[in-house]
Design a protein that fits this description.
This protein has 58 residues and is mostly helical. It is 59% helix and 0% strand. The radius of gyration is 10 Å and the shape is globular.
């Protein structure tokens, strides 16, 4: 949910984010639908969005 919100706030489509983050669009779609992914992939996406990745356990 957080990725979808930040992506939309940045005015990017999944395809646009895929291009700037060097992550396949299909991976972005899977993450946005709730699938697991690696910290490395999330870091690439966060960097492309100009954000910091923070992991919390609750």
């Amino acid at each position: 949910m957080a990725l979808t919100k930040v992506r939309k706030e940045s005015g990017l489509s999944q395809r646009d984010l895929a291009t700037v983050s060097d992550v396949p669009q299909s991976t972005i779609a899977r993450i946005e639908s709730g699938a697991n992914t690696s910290i490395d992939t999330l870091t690439k996406i966060a960097n492309a969005l100009g954000k910091r990745l923070t992991v919390n356990f609750s």
